[in-house]
Design goal:
mainly alpha, 10 helices, 0% strand
Length: 205
């Protein structure tokens, strides 16, 4: 059972896929939406993160939901376009590139978000059973503990297992790499979780 997809796409085409997916992933929807709604500069609010959890701290639930959907959607669209046009190897590369675009967007001096929504969006298109199970894991942990970062960490860590158990073994390596990056981006949150000072969903930072 292979844990990586077969390489079938020409290197130049893969390079084009990586660039296009990176640029799509780089679109900072949270920042765009909050500015368009007159909610201020998201980077000066709460944690300063550009993701949906920090958008929620503006008090605008609609903006947070739109950010969540669009951040997940840009990852999913990148994967779907690459898969339809070229194949599974291109799809996985697009997932990684879109994810990296969100983490390190060229438009914001390479200072982006933590990648949870984009990661889950790519998973849903790459292997929808595993993606939905990872999302369900997020929801279950959030319902139990009401801590967004803890939900993200558990969901990310569970994703490679869900990929393997649902028959998407060729995406396991990608899942492990992206999950590790999600954890790395949450290192400050992990410190606060250990200290018991991490804010809860709906609470003030």
């Amino acid at each position: 059972m292979s844990l990586l997809p077969e390489l079938t796409t020409a290197p130049l085409m893969l390079l084009a896929v990586a660039l296009g997916a990176y640029l799509l992933g780089s679109v900072p929807f949270g920042l765009v939406i909050t500015r368009a709604l007159g909610l201020g500069d998201l980077r000066a609010i709460g944690s300063g993160n550009i993701g949906a959890t920090n958008v929620l701290r503006t008090g605008h639930r609609g903006a947070a939901l739109a950010t969540l959907v669009l951040d997940a959607g840009k990852g999913g669209v990148a994967v779907l376009a690459a898969r339809v046009a070229l194949g599974e190897d291109a799809a996985q590369l697009a997932a990684a590139a879109a994810f990296m675009g969100h983490l390190f967007p060229v438009w914001l001096g390479f200072r982006g978000g933590k990648g949870v929504a984009t990661y889950l969006g790519t998973l849903i298109v790459l292997a929808w059973p595993a993606g939905l199970l990872a999302c369900a894991t997020w929801v279950a942990v959030a319902a139990a503990f009401r801590i967004s970062s803890l939900s993200a960490l558990v969901a990310a860590a569970s994703a490679p297992l869900w990929l393997f158990l649902t028959g998407a073994a060729q995406a396991v390596v990608l899942g492990v790499v992206l999950a590790a990056m999600v954890w790395e981006r949450h290192r400050a949150n992990i410190g606060r979780l250990i200290a018991g000072t991490e804010p809860r969903i709906g609470g003030k930072r």
